[in-house]
Amino acid sequence: MLTPVLILAFFLVIVALMVTKKLPVLLALPILAIGVALTAGVPLVLVKDERQIGLLAHVIGDGSTRLAAAYASVMLAAWLGQFMNHTGISKTIVKTAAELGGDRPFLVTVLITAAIALLFTTIGGLGAVIMVATIALPILISVGVPSLTAACIFLFGMATGLMLNMANWAFYATATGVEKSDVQSFAFILVGLTALSALIFAIVEFKKTGLKFSWAAQTNLGTSAQTEVQKPPVLSLLTPIIPIVLVVLLKWPIIPSFLAGILWCFLSVLVFSPKRNAGNLVSVLTKSAFEGVSDAAPAVLLMIGIGMVLNSLMHPIVAESITPLLRAVVPTSPIHYVIFFSILAPLALYRGPLNLWGLGSGIAAVVIGLGILPAPAVFSAFISAERVQAIGDPTNTHNVWLANYTGSDVNQILKKVIVYIWVLAVCGIIISSIMWF
User: Is the confidence at residue 250, as pLDDT, over 70?
Assistant: First the structure.
């Protein structure tokens, strides 16, 4: 029983170092993977059934490429996002939403949030946040929305879209081994819950600040939204939903769907925009690819560490060591499942043990491997808790940037949204218990 205690102690030390910002997550995950394997007694070199399952080959080598399919999806999504930026599609979608709202601030807020959600079904990363936020936030602030509230609304919209982002679907399916159809079905439920939470948050904030729902105000887009980009043709505005339609309705794989989205964007702009030159557009497409890879690099590096953690915690020697401890704490009934994950949902913050984009990826995989709970139920609980992280986590680079941009403190954002996102996570967990038990 000493080994699992030592593993837990090492795990808690790594968490503490990340929470106190003394160790970045990009370094923490590989250190955790290697440390757990060594603590459990995994040798550097081990051959079993003609397979290399030692620390060097299996944990570090195979672990670093375990999520390769997700890497490709993230890079293609970033490529498409940059191409949408350079062709003016992202900017046009946000500005069109503002124009449709006219002089009604609440309607402008709702439409801007919807536009943000639509864009983040395809794009992602800090670069994308900066690109969209510098257009959307001045619009929200100009119609009377307080800057801190505007930042929170942006996060709700972004989190809504990210739940439909197929690069994330690829990661979730690869990391947990859950079927893509199960990932999709629960993702749509969380999209609805997140959108509803965003709407409730906006209504409460409008009433709290005294903004009337039909109050008239002149919309000023601000200088940050005035960069000269040729307006794209109407058909190209469908680009963000093309990959989703292909995956959900036509059952295409994710990577070909992203490539089809890039092709649609290129052809629709080239054919229906008379001023576009084919050679120049090809140059823009190439430039977008390089910039997209740069945008995707932090996520890819994070996934390399996550893959190592997965292979470490799922290693037969490690799994055998920690199984008794997990069996003692993992809930087995629907009621205990709801209580357990609802109370612990905030542990998704600070890359904690319920965060699939941090330490939780390996834990979820091991819990699924135990067979105590249905695999989709484990995934759904963790991804419900992820709503707390995606919107409120002070360690998110996009939260830090939004706080700085709006003159707020990143912890103010968490305090303002914590009740909403915790309730959101609990609702997801309750629905999960109904679906999978």
Answer: yes
Nearest of 391, 326, 318 to residue 353 by alpha carbon:
326
Phi first, then psi: give them for residue 214, nearest 5 degrees.
-125, 15
In 3D space, the residue among 129, 153, 157 whose CA is nearest the CA of residue 141 turns out to be 153
Burial class (CB within 10 angstroms; exposed 0-12, middle 13-18, buried 19+) of 202: buried
What is the Cα–Cα distance from 167 to 256, expressed in whole angstroms? 12
Bridge partner list, 47:
52
Q: Would you say the C-alpha torsion 402, 408, 409, 412 has a positive or negative sign?
A: negative
In the predicted structure, residue 261 carries a pLDDT above the cut 80: yes
Q: Give 113-125 as a DSSP string.
A: HHHHHHHHTT--S
Least Cα distance to 393 among 19, 133, 40 occurs for 19
Q: Helix (H, G, I), strand (E, B), or coil: what is residue 47?
A: strand
pTM of the model: 0.83
Paired strand residues for 52: 47
The per-residue DSSP string of 298-357 comes to HHHHHHHHHHHHHHHHTSHHHHHHHHHHHHHHS--SHHHHHHHHHHHGGGGGGG-TT-TT
Sign of torsion over alpha carbons 254, 258, 259, 260 = positive
Among 127-131, 231-235, 258-262, 264-268, the least confident range? 127-131
Region for residue 228 given its phi and psi (left: phi exceeds 0; alpha: psi -120 to 50; beta: otherwise): beta
For the residues of 145-196, what is the DSSP string, one character each? Answer: --HHHHHHHHHHHHHHHHTT-HHHHHHHHHHH---HHHHHHHHHHHHHHHHH
Q: Name 48's bridge partners.
A: 51
